[in-house]
Amino acid sequence: MQIADARTVLGNFDDAAFDHHGLTSRFFRRDGKFLVETDGRDGTPQTFGIKYVFGVYPLQQYLIEFPDGRLQALSIAWDSRARELGGQRWFHLYPDEKITAADPLHWTGLQQNWNFMCAECHSTDLRKNYDAATDRFSTTWSDLNVGCEACHGPGSRHVAWASDRKRFWPFWRADDPQKGLAARFNDRVGVSWSIDPASGNARRSKPPATGRVEVEVCGRCHARRGALTDAWTPGKSLSDTHAVALLEQWLFEADGQMREEVYNYQSFRQSRMYAAGVTCSDCHDPHSQKLRAEGSAVCGQCHDAGKYQAPAHHFHEREGSTVTCISCHMPARTYMAVDTRHDHGFRIPRPDLSVRLGTPNTCNGCHRDKSFGWAAEAVEKHHGPVRKTARGFAEAFHAARTHQPDAAARLERLARNPDEPAIARATALVELGPSLSPGAINVYRGGLADPDPLVRIGALRGLAALAAGQRWNLASALLDDKVRGVRIEAAAFLAPVPPSQLSADDRRRFDRAADDYVAAQRFNADRPEARSNLGNFYAQRGRPAEAEREYLAALRLDPRFAAAAIGLADVYRLQRRDREGEAVLRQSASFAPQDAAIYHALGLALVRLKKSEAAMETLKTAADLDPAQPHYAYVYAIALNSGSRSAEALRVLEANLARHPQHAETLSALVSINRENGRGADTLRYAEKLYALNPAVPGLRTLIDRLRRSPGASP
Hints:
By secondary structure, the chain is α+β, with helices and mostly antiparallel strands.
């Protein structure tokens, strides 16, 4: 990040025009300043001055300052690559989309705001300083760009330590291994790697330290995450100051390959290299930002080049073949239209998984004219039928995301397996949540006590459907967790527990963690999701006026933010203000007509208002919009049955069960409605399926036994 001037601006501002879906923007200079004429917040053409440049290669963005302290990143960027590579041109970051001023992705909108989206990783000692009362930023930094303190923390103590050396020599003591710095980057100190001649792979001379200081520090900027505070201290777990994304479906493939822009931390934490103790600076020089060796030679530091860079290993024998370690083991994706990033999962290419699960593989990344099956056969021909795989979680995540009958069992095994990466086990605990069964509680007990904070956080998230009465004994110990992110998650999880049920000491423990939770949301009060989170928290604590205030604030920040509208309507429901709730939800639906959750909430509000026909149609819309959410179809079917349309209800439920074979609500409804209609055989069939899923359902065993004794009798 640099001040925009003749030295730093790379783009063509010589009265250059750029057209995007009918909107022409013009880049020009006046009185030594760099200017752009483009559509502003109200959609009309306006002229803006470029305050800062952002980035150098392969693209450069331009920041525009507004009077309220916001810096916004223009969506038209400069391609700084060489002309022969397609560069030296203006381009739009969303080339296929026409983005209007009302869209959060518009350059003046929430999603292009530098203060929240970009600043922490591109400047040093950043303080966001957002004032919710005035909706203004007063963002500050100690260095506009990335300086020493961005990684090492405050340098004043280091200066004092060095000054003491001069003042007190020769009596000065060098007994501070950190030399006054906040953290010591000692992951590689005293470590050597030796290559095993048999395997061709290196072994670390000693196990990696538990803290992995370097990876956690690098992860601050090289991870998909959100900040909880700007009080970051190097050396602590990243989860102490940031909410770290897990291997969520919209971000990662089932086998963990990157899908969206996720940077490197989550990918690296999946890898066998991370498990073996490899750290970032084994491959990268953190100060020069260059690799420690060129191309495959960087891999040759730990892997025998004679074995792994030979055709016998990679079986690309054509003269002039450009295959490298990186091309096979670090597949690349392009983000921001021109920026190529390599996946740091270092996984073995698995076209056989592509055949079974549809995940991408690097073989077909090059051989795009061939099928997954062709690639799988080629690998088997050269390496035999047994596939060695770095990790085995792909099948479990695929089963969960395609609603396979054995998904829960696979996820439980994954969550219990200490040989799997912590980030994968954490994700498994989250994905197991929708099919939570009494038998899985012990899996969650293990997760809540796991040494890795990501797993503890994943366990808390996965238990979201647990009844309030079961929560305290299970998770209250985490209110005192040493990692702030875990304490925050624990406070949110335990919010539904009534204070009247707690001792004075337990209330104090909860309140301390709740203070952390509220502070994190207040820190991000410029974001609708944070205001909505606070609304949820206050609603669960029985403080409806405060909840309403936060939901309304979220909708002022972004009228399209559906979660806030749904939360606000629920607050109104509890206050018997369903007409106001209906109005809020209808307005939200006008902004987001494809959001099934809004229609589902609106349908329930219409039921309470006794607008039966409108409710039925709205609930059907929700179920049709999102068939992947089984609860919507279940509720629609219950509404049909309540309206004396049981045959239609059964058809909806049966189709829902075909998509979600382990959905307990659907099975329970099929048992109940078939029983009401005297269909003994069908009642027994679905009751047996429900019993296999959850034998603790009251009265279910008795019903099954009776129907088995008299299959022709009325249920």
